[in-house]
Amino acid sequence: MIAALVLVSVVVVLTRGTPKALDASTPAGVVQGYVTAVIGGDEAAAARFLKPGEDTRCKGFESVAPERNIRVALISTTQRETTADVSVSISYTNVGGPFGSPEYASEESFGLSLVGGKWLISNAPWPLLTCHDTEIGP
User: Fold this and answer.
1) pLDDT tens profile 14-63
2) Which residues face 86 on adjacent strands?
């Protein structure tokens, strides 16, 4: 019985596939595209989702290497006329250690601004902050 449950769990995990792509013109879709680029290590693609020069934390900051064992889930989106907040849950899995695979999760928020009819990220949470070379300060 236990072996059957474990087998079903493994099949579910392996077959869940990639998440459904959200509309790229929405705040949640912009965050999804950005997070996908950051986790994939593509800073140039991630930079296309950022409002240029907005996040002052990039001054003198080098991007954090993308986590391999990270999952990001959408919690909520609050959209106003020219700004939006997208809340996500970021889960980290540590596969090392003698006791298996502990997981840690935190709730974080992205700030977005509507610029020229396009949503751009003006503030990304630190665990997913990337600073493209052209935006790094002196």
Assistant:
1) 334 567 899 999 999 999 999 999 888 888 899 899 988 755 566 655 55
2) 77, 110
- Residue 43 has φ and ψ, to the nearest 5°, of -65, -35
- Of 131, 118, 135, 123, nearest to 62 by C-alpha is 131
